[in-house]
Specification:
By secondary structure, the protein is α+β, with helices and mostly antiparallel strands. The protein is built from 10 helices and 10 strands.
């Protein structure tokens, strides 16, 4: 008996063969990767990380030859996804990406990517997990995983919050300096007796956050709430979101906040990797969290950010 023919004339394996293959669950899954698409995405991620850049720099970053890189860039240029400065020879992302970026935002790509990781963290810690992004001078909640319906939810999807207080201050720490300067020049609202409104103290804390790579707060926006936050990075290495646990202080008495901190850092790091963030090798020069238990390893997302101290601190601060 020959192979079974499908409607379109292609051959199908015999049922017996399928049954035999079903007995080997450890068999490697089929590889559907297309090499040229992989290389194209490598070039695009290199453009996002180091662009505007020369062909040589992009090819080295993407791990391809200059000839292959040039052909890919020219193809992207013909579709408006890459641009070359003819006078300097540097390549950059094209304007066509704006359409895709807006579509991804409108379709909730970040929240959809994050939800499985938020769920894993929530189940592991027994606490509610949140994801926030910066929107101008505020932060906005884009995803929530509620572990237990009985637990209080401190935010809701779409809710805006201040950047200077609570876990959102981590977003302020990695915001452009003009955003920091403009916000700290304002009269800052106090939500509880623990809310910090002194611009000099906040500016200094932003530097501490960049150095540590995480933030633990208590009672700053809602009395009786503890937040444990870590940064989420995109393919360029920029911080685009904050992933955090918010819990009643009665469930977060010391030393529990620092005990769950590695899980929060790990979840933020895994989400960053899912978004294409470069995985940086650990080395002896890596900054470790202050007061962290001996032997902790810092996630790659917690490496020191090279941003300058905020100008409000003055020279040499």
């Amino acid at each position: 008996m020959g192979p079974v023919k499908s409607i379109n004339g292609t051959s199908k394996p015999k049922a017996k063969s399928a049954a035999l293959n079903a007995g080997f669950p450890d068999a490697s899954p089929p590889d559907y990767n297309i090499a040229v698409v992989d290389r194209t995405l490598d070039i695009l991620e290199a453009l996002a990380r180091i662009g505007p850049a020369s062909l040589a720099a992009l090819a080295e970053s993407a791990g391809c030859t200059r000839t292959a890189g040039f052909r890919l860039l020219r193809t992207l240029q013909s579709r408006g996804f890459a641009l070359q400065d003819e006078s300097r020879g540097l390549w950059r992302l094209g304007a066509r990406w704006n359409v895709l970026s807006r579509a991804a935002t409108e379709q909730g790509a970040l929240a959809a990517t994050a939800m499985p990781i938020l769920a894993q963290l929530g189940k592991a810690t027994g606490e509610n997990v949140y994801l926030r992004v910066r929107e101008g001078m505020e932060s906005e909640t884009v995803a929530i995983y509620q572990t237990d319906p009985a637990l209080r939810v401190y935010s809701e999807v779409g809710k805006r919050s201040p950047l200077h207080a609570g876990s959102s201050r981590l977003l302020l720490a990695f915001a452009p300096e003009p955003v920091q300067t403009q916000l700290l020049a304002r009269r800052l609202n106090r939500f509880t007796p623990a809310t910090r409104t002194d611009a000099t103290w906040i500016a200094a804390d932003l530097q501490r956050i960049r150095t540590r790579g995480y933030l633990i707060t208590s009672d700053e926006v809602v009395a009786g709430a503890v937040g444990i936050a870590a940064p989420v990075r995109d393919a360029s290495g920029a911080v685009i979101a904050v992933l955090y646990i918010a819990s009643p202080s009665m469930r977060m008495r010391p030393p529990r906040p620092r005990a769950v901190l590695p899980q929060v850092l790990d979840a933020a790091n895994r989400l960053s990797e899912a978004l294409g963030a470069p995985v940086l090798p650990q080395h002896d020069g890596m900054i470790r969290p202050e007061a962290a238990p001996k032997g902790w390893q810092v996630a790659s997302s917690a490496m020191i950010n090279l941003a300058r101290p905020h100008s409000i601190l003055g020279k040499g601060a």
